[in-house]
Specification:
298 residues; alpha/beta; Rossmann fold; 12 strands
Length: 298
């Protein structure tokens, strides 16, 4: 059985991990600041020691992140501390105590100019401050010498915290129509499925079946645009999806550049023997079935 430490445990993915794992400590940033070297070392040491005493296999799953994409453009120093230095400190502590580390990353490490799904071997070339700091975290983890795996995901939503699904539900309750970008393509990913996939990976990395590829992609199956995603949310809310109108990225400028195409290939995930994620539309329906009350505007 696993014993997990999940930094970033109060975020939308961290809370989902805590809800689905059996033996887990999921501290928020106030309990475990991943930029504090001493705190990181102590947390990993405690995990390793307690797991050994209980006959469990320790694994760290790093969900801590500065993921305010636009704010990172003006706050790159703080974003780098959490997204770049934090993973480096975790990897060093994990190496010292022989604990595997799974680090969650993002599609934003790619430029978004591809015309087919990004493979794990494709060149990282971020265009935003957020993407740059996440790419730095990946490099730090993979170059640490620790037992590490980087899992990139995208377009994440869930019952906890703020996300696109909740934003659409709130907008639907206050506006007759809304315009949503229709020229950016990606893979919506429910935290319930992502957490399940990460737990499956954690179970593998402590065995002789650990994936040989140290970078993996885990997103909802298939692809859509933000407009298509929004219309699907309206359908789940029992509303007319025609209320969502398409617009272009140019019509909705943001401080940080968005990838026009950020579909991630799950080839390495499947080749590692991990369960493929279900189609994103099916997952959205499942998310509403399980947590519908969290997705509806008050």
């Amino acid at each position: 059985m696993l014993s997990l430490l999940v930094p970033g445990g109060h975020g939308q993915l961290g809370r989902e991990m805590a809800a689905r794992a059996e033996v887990v400590r999921a501290p928020g940033s106030s309990e475990l600041d991943v930029t504090n070297a001493g705190a990181v070392v102590e947390a990993v040491k405690t995990l390793a020691t307690s797991a050994a005493e209980d006959g469990l296999s320790p694994v760290v799953v790093n969900c801590a992140a500065y993921n305010a994409v636009d704010a990172a453009e003006a706050d790159a120093t703080r974003a780098f501390a959490i997204n770049g230095d934090g993973p480096r400190l975790l990897a060093a502590a994990c190496a010292a105590h022989n604990v595997p580390l799974i680090h969650v990353s993002t599609d934003y490490v790619f430029p978004g100019d591809a015309d087919r799904p990004y493979e794990v071997t494709d060149t990282v070339r971020p265009r935003s401050a957020y993407g740059t700091t996440k790419a730095a975290g990946e490099a730090a983890v993979l170059g640490s010498g620790a037992m590490t795996w980087v899992v990139r995901t995208a377009w994440v939503y869930g019952a906890f915290g703020g996300n696109f699904v909740k934003t659409m539900a709130k907008a639907a309750a206050s506006r007759d129509t809304l315009s949503v970008v229709d020229d950016q393509r990606g893979c919506p990913t429910w935290t319930g499925d992502l957490a399940t996939g990460l737990l499956e990976l954690a179970s593998l990395v402590v065995t002789d079946k650990a994936p040989t590829s140290r970078v993996l992609h885990c997103t909802g199956g298939g692809e859509t645009t933000w407009c298509g995603f929004a219309r699907a949310v309206f359908e789940e809310l029992g509303l007319d999806p025609a209320r969502v109108h398409p617009c272009t990225t140019e019509e909705y400028p943001r401080p940080a550049p968005r990838p026009a195409y950020s579909v991630l290939s799950d080839r390495a995930w499947r080749e590692a023997g991990l369960t493929p994620m279900r189609p994103w539309r099916e997952a959205l329906a499942a998310a509403f079935a399980e947590h519908g009350e969290h997705f509806r505007a008050p």
